[in-house]
Specification:
The protein is α+β, with helices and mostly antiparallel strands and 490 residues long. It is built from ten helices and 25 strands. Strand 24, helix 10 and strand 25 form a beta-alpha-beta unit. The N and C termini lie far apart (82 Å).
């Protein structure tokens, strides 16, 4: 029947007698999800590799197979009578005409062990923002290199971007090994050069594979043409790579999205757990008020839970009546995030319109939205050489280190420690375009902040006597809470 999936693995042929469909569906729902991206230079074979993964694992529908065979004959680049697997991913007309990937293409499939979401990202420098978008949620990155050319400038750029995004697992796919006669010497030379690069960038988990995406060697099945390679096939590795430790389960962060008040007897705080674990009875503190309470219940659509963890969406009720609203955060009293309005961040410029430091942007961080200004640009990064360049206003796809001040107080962690509370976006207030994405490096100390930009009250010079200092300090503190920072000299 057209549109029906091809059976694979243990489900080939007739369904076994006595099969419990509900148990099978329940088990399928509990499979872990691996999000991965592919990146590489032009013609390194990203789209072909993903197409081969889908084809050889028999995860295509019959109508997709028919269309693939038809398109391969009409516009394929694999040769006469050959299937062009890249056509499964390159869906735009311009991509098929030019033979390159332009936009991010997402593909979904699953095996008996795991579910997958693959982002096929473009390799050109002019599409850096597309790669950042595709990799923002990825657990793993597959970096492809051509066995004939080895590690090139684009390979270094993609690896730098992957490290910037905090992706913890990298696969180096040395593709087109069939064109170098599956030489172990060639593979080892490329592997050693790449490992030197990842060591420099502080990336620890790197696994290397010799592949031929076009012919299927070491993609889904181990190849007999690489007897010297002792690893598994790429698909087997993807099914088993451990990702459960990638999430921050230590630091409890709960940005409040909505105050739920269906009746007079219930008041809960709804949202998605950004990181960590929470249990009934745990002591918590609300930010920024610093009011303490204990978790009374953890409510979900299916019923109450004794504990919850990221990335679950739940509603928390507390033992005490505390005024908490959207954009505020519930955390543990002995494990607080950074609390402040000034921080240093890596910024990726995403807008066609160049940066204007005189503009006040909207900054969206979790459920919190506030005004923000770019105060300073310590440096820009040459994404091809990783060299630090002179700081100036960014243009499309440029990356660098900036210092930002927000109108409201934010509750954040360093991105390297906690992705969920260390990332944000800048929004142009006029066009409503996403201007930039940021990965927070650290909070700024007082000496790092441009003091010239902060209004100053010199109380003695203004003739204000000490008995009025306390009242003025209280007023300044309230203004600071509302987003206006004032320096007081007594």
């Amino acid at each position: 029947m057209q549109g029906s999936p091809l059976p694979i693995g243990e489900w080939q042929g007739e369904r076994p007698a006595g099969l419990d469909i509900k148990a099978y569906l329940d088990a399928d729902e509990k499979k872990s999800l691996l999000r991965l991206l592919t990146a590489g230079s032009v013609d390194d074979g990203k789209s072909t590799l993903i197409g081969r993964l889908l084809f050889d694992s028999k995860k295509l529908y019959e109508d997709q197979l028919t269309a693939l065979e038809r398109d391969s004959r009409r516009v394929g680049n694999a040769g006469a009578g050959q299937i062009d697997y890249a056509l499964l991913l390159d869906g735009l007309k311009a991509e098929r005409e030019e033979g390159i990937t332009i936009d991010v293409a997402y593909r979904y499939f699953s095996t008996n062990q795991r579910k997958f979401i693959i982002a096929d990202t473009p390799g050109h420098e002019q599409y850096t923002r597309n790669m950042i978008t595709g990799g923002s949620t990825a657990n793993l990155a597959i970096i492809l290199v051509d066995a004939r050319t080895g590690v090139i400038t684009q390979t270094r750029r993609h690896t730098f971007l992957v490290s910037l995004l905090g992706i913890k697992h990298i696969v180096l796919a040395v593709n087109k090994m069939d064109l170098v006669d599956f030489s172990e010497e060639v593979f080892n030379k490329i592997r050693d050069e790449y490992l030197a690069l990842t060591t420099q960038l502080g990336i620890e988990d790197v696994t290397c594979f010799p592949l031929s995406a076009l012919e299927g060697d070491n993609v889904v099945e181990k190849s007999q043409r690489t007897p010297w390679f002792k690893g598994t096939s790429l698909l087997e590795f993807l099914e088993t790579v451990p990702i459960h430790r990638d999430r921050n389960m230590t630091d409890f962060r709960y940005p409040v999205q909505y105050v739920l008040r269906p009746n007079l007897d219930f008041r809960g705080f709804s949202g998605k757990i950004a990181s960590g674990v929470i249990r009934k009875g745990d002591e918590v503190v609300a930010l920024p008020s610093m009011k303490r309470s204990h978790v009374k219940s953890i409510v979900t659509y299916e019923g109450e839970l004794d504990e919850a963890f990221c990335p679950q969406c739940v509603t928390l009720t507390l033992e005490d009546e505390i005024d908490i609203s959207r954009g505020e955060m519930i955390v543990r009293p002995d494990n607080l995030p950074n609390i402040g309005r000034n921080f240093e961040t890596m910024l990726v410029w995403m807008d066609e319109e160049p940066m204007d430091r005189g503009k006040q942007f909207f900054l969206k961080h979790n459920t919190n939205t506030t005004r923000a200004t770019i105060d300073a640009i310590p440096y820009r990064v040459d994404v091809n050489t990783m060299e630090h360049l002179e700081g100036r206003d960014f243009r499309l796809n440029e990356i660098g280190c900036v210092r930002i001040t927000t109108a409201k107080t934010l509750f954040f962690d360093a991105y390297a420690k906690n992705k969920a509370t260390g990332a944000f976006i800048l929004i142009d207030p006029i066009t409503n375009n996403t201007s930039a994405v940021g990965m927070i490096i650290r909070p700024l100390e007082t000496e790092d902040i441009n003091q010239a930009d902060i209004p100053t009250l010199d109380l003695p010079r203004l003739g204000i006597t000490p008995e009025h200092y306390e009242a003025i300090e209280q007023a300044v503190k309230e203004l600071s809470r509302q987003g206006l920072e004032i320096k007081v000299i007594k």
